[in-house]
Write a sequence for this structure.
């Protein structure tokens, strides 16, 4: 997803510097070109050789280590699409906020004219210091993205706010800035994701193996393309777009119905339970001496079919999903006719290398005119992009 993107990572002298080795690996797995700048103190926590091997690039430290005529702080700033400073110590972020350029990293930050993401990490007392907080406000006001530290046990032995935020958060925010486009600007898109949970009693339920990864990937990609996104999901996620957390099929139906009148496109990627318990016990049912137990189930509403029947004309565009363990194309063709949706995305859940809880998928996209479009095995992020391309081509 990040092939051809140039990412510049600045590492300062904090204990969390060792974590950035894994961040570099994450970006490299996405085929990004990564360059690293360190302060001299950062090398007390991670070695230059390690960073060079991981990034497959020279690591900048000294401000006047010139191999060519172009000043290094200008060349670094010109080449990178985005700059990340993590961990950012109180010292370094305060220097940047006040225009102090006494090392290579702060000089590059001063010359950088694109997006800078700063992930501070420090002792909780330092984080709460009013001068540090004033410098944080300066950096935010200048357009820098500040990923605030998390609370927890700190290396100094204290408990409080100061831990470097998760690498996933740094990666997600970076990806959002790098991939954001305007292809779907003005479109309001609703996506459902995850497996619904149908309660039996106060502690038991039935569900399925859906992780929600496919639906969340579609929501991410729609957001990157400029759409106004609402994600209705059974999975706990933090995203920069609107997320509505639900549990059961009825909850999901109510949430989707609420958005129906103002949505341009609905993509039903969630694995919605076909049945729910007829009577939900408000207490934990006790085990008896009987070897068998009978629970009565009733049908859940068919959300996808109901949406298709409810709309007038061709608005909103409706996309369904079909998870099959056998006769994939036959069942998918029957389903798109029965449901009445514009597109149906079919995937084979009998395969172990794709589908539920996997980071990869392979799908067949059917349209209402009977055409089939095969998308070979790829990451769900790539599959999401292909799905949006097809339905909006």
């Amino acid at each position: 997803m990040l092939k051809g993107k140039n990412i510049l990572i600045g590492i300062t002298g904090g204990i969390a510097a060792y974590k950035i080795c894994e961040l570099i690996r994450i970006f490299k797995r996405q085929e990004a070109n990564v360059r690293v700048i360190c302060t001299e103190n950062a090398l007390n926590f991670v070695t230059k050789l390690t960073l060079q091997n991981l990034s497959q690039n020279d690591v900048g430290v000294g401000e006047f280590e010139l191999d060519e005529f172009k000043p290094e702080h200008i060349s670094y700033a010109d080449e990178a699409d985005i700059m990340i400073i993590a961990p950012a110590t109180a010292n370094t972020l305060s220097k940047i906020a006040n225009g102090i350029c006494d090392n290579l990293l702060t000089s590059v930050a001063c010359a950088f004219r694109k997006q800078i993401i700063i992930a501070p990490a420090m002792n909780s007392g330092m984080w709460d210091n009013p001068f540090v907080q004033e410098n944080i406000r300066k950096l935010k006001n200048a357009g820098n993205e500040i990923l605030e530290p998390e609370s927890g046990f700190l290396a100094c032995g204290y408990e409080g706010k100061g831990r470097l935020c998760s690498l996933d958060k740094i990666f997600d925010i970076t990806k959002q800035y790098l991939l954001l486009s305007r292809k779907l600007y003005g479109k309001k898109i609703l996506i459902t994701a995850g497996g619904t949970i149908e309660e039996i009693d106060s502690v038991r339920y039935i569900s399925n193996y859906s992780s929600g990864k496919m639906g969340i990937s579609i929501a991410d990609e729609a957001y990157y393309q400029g759409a106004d996104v609402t994600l209705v999901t059974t999975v706990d996620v933090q995203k920069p777009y609107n997320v509505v957390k639900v549990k059961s099929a009825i909850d999901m139906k109510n949430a989707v119905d609420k958005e129906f009148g103002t949505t341009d496109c609905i993509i039903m990627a969630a694995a919605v339970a076909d049945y729910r318990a007829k009577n939900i016990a408000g207490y934990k049912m006790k085990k008896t001496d009987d070897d068998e137990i009978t629970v009565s189930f009733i049908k859940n509403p068919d959300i996808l079919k109901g949406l298709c029947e409810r709309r007038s004309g061709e608005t909103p565009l409706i996309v369904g999903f079909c998870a099959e363990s056998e006769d994939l194309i036959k069942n998918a063709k029957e389903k798109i006719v029965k449901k009445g949706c514009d597109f149906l995305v079919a995937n084979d859940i009998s395969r172990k290398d794709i589908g539920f809880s996997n980071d990869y998928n392979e799908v067949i996209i059917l349209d209402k005119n009977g055409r089939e479009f095969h998308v070979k095995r790829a990451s769900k992020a790539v599959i999401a992009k292909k799905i949006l391309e097809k339905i909006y081509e």
In short: The mean pLDDT is 90. The longest helix spans residues 167-179. The domain at 6-177 is CATH 3.40.50.1950 (Rossmann fold). The radius of gyration is 25 Å.
